[in-house]
Amino acid sequence: MSVPTVSRLSVLCLSAILMAAVAAPAAADVYRWVDDQGQVHFSDEPHEGADPVDVGEPTVVESLPTPKGAATSEDGADAGDDDDAGGDGDAAAQTQWHIAIAAPSDEATVRDNRGRIQLVLDVRPRLADDQHVLVLVDGSPSKQGPFTASDITLTDLDRGAHELQVLLRNDDGRVLARSSTVTVYLHQASRLFRNR
Questions:
Q1: What percent of the chain has pLDDT over 70?
Q2: Closest alpha carbon to 24 in 44, 10, 50
Q3: pLDDT given at position 185
Q4: Which one-letter DSSP state was computed for residue 128?
Q5: SS3 of 36, please?
Q6: How far is CA 7 from the centre of its chain?
Q7: Helix (H, G, I), strand (E, B), or coil: what is residue 173?
């Protein structure tokens, strides 16, 4: 069953007016009227039989503050309060590291018949030459890795639920940051049920 043309057109016109209202100055007036054929019109100019439309105040969203410990310079040597930092006093030991699994999201379903899951990591500051990422799959280190990039493909995983976590470590094996655990469901086509 199709929606009447008047309704679709009304929604389209109202959407266009609302988008224009957000971009236009707050003092701009909007008018609505229905013509002889029953078609609804919107305009910023008054017409005979038009009623003013209250479009309200525009929504303003403040930007988020920069996360504590995020790099502010090219070398990423922004000092932070890291309790695990050694007492050697160099800038790298003082840096507040952050690592998270940006994709796939928690409770996501991945469909791959080869048992692959692509991870995209959010690492701040960027990985240095003496750092690597260790991936934990269901609480155990992955057979692959350690990795030195923020895009990782895990392979040869069995179908089902997997708990994934990543650790940022330096060459000495010290854990600089740890992500929260993400549960991912790996689906593979069934040989028994070909239509599923």
A1: 68
A2: 44
A3: 92
A4: P
A5: coil
A6: 34
A7: coil
**Which residues sit opposite 122 in a β-bridge?**
100
Nearest Cα neighbor of 110 from 99, 120, 118, 102 is 118
Q: Hey, what CATH topology would domain 91-187 get?
A: Immunoglobulin-like (2.60.40)
Q: With contact defined as beta carbons under 8 Å apart, do 99 and 179 qualify?
A: yes
Give the amino acid at 159.
Answer: R
pLDDT at position 189 is: 79
Give the E-state strand segments of the chain in sequence order. 30-34, 40-43, 51-53, 98-103, 108-111, 117-124, 131-137, 140-141, 151-154, 160-170, 175-178, 182-187
Mean pLDDT on 136-143: 85
Q: Which segments of the chain belong to CATH 2.60.40.10?
A: 91-187
What separation, in Å, do the N-terminal and C-terminal C-alpha atoms of the chain show? 30
Query: What would the pLDDT profile of 110-139 be if each residue is shown by its tens digit?
Result: 888 888 888 888 888 888 888 888 888 888
CA distance 178 to 175: 7
- Written as six digits, the tokens of 97 are 């590291």
